[in-house]
Design a protein that fits this description.
The protein is α/β, with parallel strands linked by helices and 476 residues long. The protein folds into four domains: 2-138, Response regulator (Rossmann fold, 3-Layer(aba) Sandwich); 151-252, no CATH class; 257-351; 415-475, Arc Repressor Mutant, subunit A, CATH 1.10.10. It is 53% helix and 11% strand. Strand 1, helix 1 (11-20) and strand 2 form a beta-alpha-beta unit. The radius of gyration is 28 Å and the shape is globular.
Length: 476
């Protein structure tokens, strides 16, 4: 399947063009769209793209300028120009610069779309035969029929992108993005050869290189799919110093028991008991279970980040403690289970040090941590302190006293903070009215909600929404 994107500054034109064509029947999948050249270049950094349909007269970066930049950095990407009926001089120039075909937007309709797409399909096949002669005339996609014969995959452990990596590779090396952090360079007739001991040479800090071997009988497209879906998962559990060579066959056969919804539910239930925080035996058992079941790194990191954000935002702890929790909760950078395990140990240590200064038993502390978790999940319901105390098997008065000692705020204060945070998210992300949001987050008096929001955020809900939406428009 050929991965394609549509680049046109008119949104309705993009949507209409995409909806008009049965892309699958021509071996094409539209994997993205962009309103300008800058966004198109971002998409190229984030995913594998084989074909681009580009409006030639966009404001800002023109189609010509985009074509030139892409040709310099992504040699195998093909172009089809989108034009209006009066732009044939531009079309000739685009074809001279390497575009394989053009489409007149104003003339494309259901009667001629099949003829147009078959013409483009034929030119793509001829171009594939020219660029990849080993595939011959049978090349039905740009890489779909090429046999996999090994590859080097580069992983960025930060904000580094494809442009930085290209500076480290031999000129002309066919580097392709697989995901936000993974880039592949196929070996064989269309790419350079590296040995395992050469991979790290010349790489800047923040980059890893992995040689992918094996995969007999797999096509390059099948290999890319397996690598993009499984390599980061495999590396996450491979230890603090993962090997420089990975077998594609091992990636294809990778099985994670935690993919079973029942196993994931059991893991989540163990996590939410939080006994691993304060008891060494339970910690060891939970850690062993993680290594055995290998749950999704994104799912696991999400649990840790969510816990740390809750503690940092809703507990009146020292600035040093909060800073450490927020560091653990950073959205990127948890690249291995060994690293995440170390960070979890530090989180547990923060809690244990906190308890050392309080007259609370471990069991009472666990009840309070579970209570905070329940509040986070049900903050917008008609939740009362009585109900939460009952769920964690504590009397209301003792719960209230202990909660304030551990958290630093009263139950009511934390609940209001949680509700205001949810209101901010809804104001940013939804089209609900302020009145509807007020009820959705547990404030059944709209005026009281607006006053409380103003006290805590510094502006009324409508002001907050208008300011956020204005910021979004400026950033697009």
């Amino acid at each position: 399947m050929i991965n394609a994107i549509v680049v046109d500054d008119e949104k309705l034109v993009r949507k209409g063009f995409i909806s008009l064509i049965d892309w699958q029947s021509y071996g094409i999948e539209i994997t993205g769209e962009a309103a300008n050249g800058s966004r198109a270049l971002q998409l190229l950094e984030q995913q594998r793209i084989d074909l681009m349909f580009v409006d030639i007269t966009m404001p800002g970066m023109t189609g010509f300028e985009l074509l030139q930049q892409v040709q310099q950095s992504y040699g195998t990407v093909q172009f089809v120009i989108l034009t209006c009926h009066h732009e044939f001089d531009y079309v000739q120039e685009a074809l001279r610069r390497g575009a394989i075909d053009y489409i007149v937007k104003t003339l494309l309709n259901k009667d001629n779309v099949d003829e147009t797409m078959k013409r483009i399909q034929g030119r793509l096949q001829r171009e594939a035969s020219r660029v990849f002669p080993a595939a011959g005339a049978a090349a039905g996609t740009i890489r779909g029929q090429l046999q996999f014969s090994g590859a080097v995959v580069f992983r960025s452990r930060g904000s580094q992108g494809m442009s930085e990596l290209r500076d480290l590779l031999p000129e002309g090396a066919p580097l392709l993005p697989l995901s936000t952090h993974l880039y592949i360079c196929h070996q064989g007739s269309a790419g350079p050869h590296w040995r395992a001991d050469e991979l790290a040479m010349g790489l800047h800090s923040g980059w890893e290189a992995v040689l992918i071997t094996g995969g007999e009988g797999q096509t390059r497209q099948e290999a890319e799919r397996a690598i993009s879906q499984r390599l980061e998962h495999w590396l996450f559990y491979a230890g603090p110093t993962p090997p420089a060579v990975v077998s594609l066959d091992e990636l294809v056969s990778l099985h994670c028991e935690a993919d079973d919804p029942l196993e994931q539910e059991r893991l989540l239930a163990e996590w939410q008991q939080f006994r691993w925080l304060l008891h060494g035996k339970e910690w060891a058992e939970w850690s062993d279970t993680i290594v055995k079941l290998r749950p999704s790194p994104a799912w696991l990191s999400g649990l840790v980040q969510g816990l740390c954000l809750n503690w940092a935002h809703y507990m009146a702890w020292s600035a040093e403690e909060q800073a450490r929790l927020l560091e653990v909760a950073r959205p990127q950078g948890l690249w291995s289970w060994s690293e995440l395990e170390r960070l979890l140990s530090e989180v547990a240590l923060v809690m244990q040090r906190r308890l050392a200064d309080l007259p609370l038993s471990r069991e009472v502390a666990l009840c309070l941590i579970r209570a905070l978790h329940i509040m986070r999940q049900q903050a917008c319901d008609n939740l009362t302190q009585n109900e939460v105390a009952h769920v964690v098997s504590m009397s209301r008065s003792y719960f209230s006293q202990c909660f304030k000692q551990l958290v630093g705020y009263s139950f009511g204060e934390v609940l209001r903070r949680m509700r205001i945070d949810q209101a901010k998210r809804l104001l940013q992300e939804s089209s609900l009215s302020v009145y509807e949001i007020s009820g959705a987050v547990g404030f059944y008096d709209n005026k009281h909600f607006s006053r409380t929001f103003k006290e805590r955020v510094g502006m009324y809900p409508k002001e907050y929404r208008n300011r956020h939406q204005a910021g979004k428009v400026e950033g697009e």
